[in-house]
Amino acid sequence: MAGLRKFFGWLHPNSLTYYLCMKKPAALQPGDTIRLIAPSSPPKDRASLGKAIAAVKTLGFRIKYSDTIFAHDGYLAGSDEERAKDFQAAFNDSKAKAVLCVRGGFGATRILNLVDWDEIREPKIFLGFSDITALSCALWEKCEFPSFSGPVLTSDLVNEKLEAKSWNHTISLLTGEKTTGVLVEEPFNPVQPISLVPGESFGRLMGGNLSMICSLLGTPWFPNFGKSILFLEDIGESPYRVDRHLTQLLDAGVLQTVSGIALGDFRYSDAQRKNDRRRGLQTMESVFLDRLGGLGVPVLMNLPFGHIKPKITLPFGVVTILDSERHNLILQESGVEPVEDEDD
Predict the structure, then answer these.
(1) Catalytic option among 233, 237, 245, 324
(2) 72 catalytically annotated
(3) Which of 93, 132, 174, 175 is the most exposed place for a label (fewest CB within 10 A)?
(4) pLDDT at site 52
(5) pLDDT tens for each residue of 284-320
């Protein structure tokens, strides 16, 4: 009963149905169709995208896309209207069971006000990270649909092949092969995560790229992160810039509402750390401790997700335990609904 009282006390927003009635997409099966979209920046060129498409076909799924993914308008994959239309069409495509982003980059926030969110009525598996965080947040806030923070097509290849560790982890979640249990396990290093603030908590696993989350503050697409396990990653941000982002979330009262924080890879090298110390500057770790250490919630850092290879995939929206003593995130539910056998 103590566990139940603890669980009910953490319900958000004060409703059991919030935890039990999330509408999930159907699990991916061999032969299902994956639709590719480019809602942000374009791939390097048509040839490299073709190689990436050939690689993902090896997983045993059908691939579908419109010519929009080949569009190129500077740092954008076509006009805002084209990208918004393709995003909408992908979710309205009855044959597509999943939507996979070919790249992050920049541009997802530019299409948020062009999407008719009321017309997205059925959840689909939606996969991407970095700039794609904006779309995952909007899908949750507007539709209450989960998504997956994981590989994008063109950035997660090695020698023109899918990076095996990353994609095996992803596929295990998308197919429902893995439904619950620890997220960081072999072949990933289960002792890699570091406990910054000890403790255990649970809530919905929500988050993504730190810069993108801050860019959504004050917009209609910013989710309610209250009582969540907030996961964050970023790239190309020095400690003082990460300090600025975290301070913004503190000043907005966001971080004070979460149940726990999981920090991924921020692409902060040993050389950068050594240089910052030599110059008497704050390191990334000291910024995390200063900005997050007084929140009274457990904080786990150095988890293997973000702009790295290999990386784990995180199901956005599922109930998860953050256990800093076990140095892990522990899924309490699947991000997909099992598909019933037609013979049953």
Answers:
(1) 233
(2) no
(3) 93
(4) 86
(5) 999 999 999 999 999 999 999 999 999 999 999 999 9
What does the alpha-carbon distance between residue 190 and residue 181 come to, in Å, rounded to a whole number?
Answer: 13
Domain 181-331 adopts which CATH fold? Glucose Oxidase; domain 1 (3.50.30)
pLDDT in tens, 262-283: 999 999 999 999 999 999 999 9
Among the four given CATH numbers 3.40.50.10740, 3.50.50.60, 3.40.50.1220, 3.30.70.1400, the one describing domain 33-174: 3.40.50.10740
Model pLDDT, residue 343: 53
pLDDT < 50: residue spans in the chain: 1-18
In degrees and rounded to multiples of 5, residue 308 shows phi and psi of: -135, 165
Q: Are 329 and 184 in contact (CB under 8 A)?
A: yes
For residue 288, what are its two tokens? 């995390």
| Distance (Å, whole) CA 294 – CA 296 | 6
Contact status, residue 236 vs residue 211, Cβ threshold 8 Å: no
Say whether 130 is catalytic.
Answer: yes
- Contact between 153 and 52 (Cβ < 8 Å): yes
- In this prediction, residue 278 carries a pLDDT of 96
Residue 286 falls in the annotated catalytic set: no
Q: Please spell the DSSP secondary structure of 287-336, one letter per residue.
A: HHHHHHTTSSS-EEE--S-SSSSS---EEETSEEEEETTTTEEEESS-SS
Look up residue 150 and give its two tokens. 């994981």
Q: What is the dihedral of CA 101, 106, 107, 108, to 10 degrees?
A: 50
Domain ranges (residues) in the chain: 33-174, 181-331
CA-to-CA distance for 231 and 210, rounded, in angstroms?
A: 9
Q: How far is CA 19 from the centre of its chain?
A: 19
